[in-house]
Structures are given as C-alpha cells and as structure tokens.
Amino acid sequence: MFSSERNFADWQLCGLSGAPAQLFQEIESTHSLMKARAAAGEIQPGTLYVADTQTAGRGRHERTWASPAGQNLYFNILIPLEGIPLASAPQVTQVAALTFAEVFKSLQDESNAHGLGNQSVGKVTVKWPNDILCGKSKFCGILAEVVYVNQVQHDSSGQVHPAISMGVGINVNSSPLDYAHLGRAVTTLKDICGQKINREKLLQMLIANLERAIGQFRAFGIRPWVAAWKRMDQFIGARGTIVVNNRCTDQNRESGDGAIKKNGTILDMQEDGSLLFKCDDGTVETVYSADLEI
Known about the structure:
Layout: E1 21-24, H1 30-39, E2 48-51, E3 73-80, H2 89-113, E4 124-127, E5 131-134, E6 137-150, E7 160-170, H3 189-193, H4 199-220, H5 223-232, E8 239-244, E9 260-269, E10 275-279, E11 284-287, E12 291-293
Helix pairs in contact: 2-4
C-alpha cells in the first residue's frame, strides 16, 4: 500500500461485480456525470468513475471539495439497491463510511507499528452520519443520492431501477496546508501515516471491501456496522451541534443562514443508524438526517 504508484492512465480497476471503471484525467465532477449518465441509461449498475482531478468538485450542500491533481482520490460508484429497501438507502452510505474508515485505521495502525505514523493527529473515526476524521480533522467525505437507472440499453425490460450514486473524496497524498483556505480542520492520509500511499492499490482495496460490506448489509442489515461505529467512536458523550434543514454553503457556513441549529450532547447511535441527541433545552431527539458539528 505504501509502494510507488504507476501513472494514473495505467491504473487497473473495476466497479462492483466486475462492472467497468472509467478514468478521467480531468473532469468537472464525477458525481454530476454519473447522475446524468445513469438517468440516461448510458451506464450499468456497479460502474466506477475515477478522476485524477476535478474542476468543480463538491461535497454536501454544494460546499467546495478541493481537488488538487495527482494527489488524492475522487471517485463515484453506482450501487444497485437490489434487495435493499429504498428507505434503507441512507444506511448504505453509513456502511460505506465505516468500511472505508476500517481500511484507513488499518493503514494508520500499520504505520504506527513501524514508527512512521503521526502520533499527534489522533485516531481515525467516523463522525455521524458519514464523515471520516482523524481526531477532529476531516479527510474523507461521501456524497450520495438515489438515482433511477434506465436499463433499456442493458436489458430488454426497459425498466428503471433505483441505485445510489455515491461520490467519495479522499485526501490521500496532499498536505493539510493545501486546504488552509477552506477555514476548517482538514488532514490527509499522508499526514496521518507519515508516508505516501499508493492510490491505485488503496482504491482497489476500498472497492473490494465495499462490495463485501454491501453483501453483508443485504443479509444482516445495519446492526453490525452500528456495533463497529461504537467501537471506533470518539464522540458519544461529547458536545455537538445538529444542523437541520441545512442549506449552508461555503459562503454562509459561519452565519448559519438557512439552517436550524440545535446545541446539545451526543447520547448514542441507535440500532437503525439514527443519532440520539439531547438538546440543551432538555429534549431528547432521534435524528435521521442532519449534519453534526463537533
């Protein structure tokens, strides 16, 4: 995983169940392209898009996702929802976040065992619902939307099937200084592990582990990943802010315009993946969809 990587154009990848992977040296956004092509029936479920750089990378709520060339991973994968209730689609993203975090934690542990890791940055963890942090600094974000894949070009049914277009951005070999302009805590895998990562091998491992995890999720539901989250969690019992109906962008993130913010204490992650949160006014809320600020 820490070996030198070959040229981006020579990477050998595939999507889920052997679906094709497509590499883009430069693209506006893998997420935007996948959504459009899925709706048009131009790609099959399981397809993987990977960019070496994005000119219009975005995270949740249209926040900027900085995408320097040749350093990080920016990819989208089209996850079929066959055998998964549509109501459980958000849990797929939580499963992905926990699966990826376990890979990153294994890299951190390996580096620390060899005395190469950065001991001052804290431990890899998942902040509900799906941000991956080291300490309190984010280095992996996931943006997921349900899309309806037109299958007319891939089978004779002409049916439309739901799928998740999941976009992932991982700060791999860049420097935390590259993100100083964003005004929020950001780190990178290179800073965490103290050495450069082979991005191709990392992505191969992430996709393979994700495919196994989705199969397990279909069979067992979210409960095993809730247990994994609790083993990795550093935030239960901590103060936090729930941001509801969040329309905050880079421009109004500090003012909170367009959002309802509730301060309080994180009590637990429940068996269905929801967050149990005690507000400062004494009320206890079950939160299914929101941003959590630590």
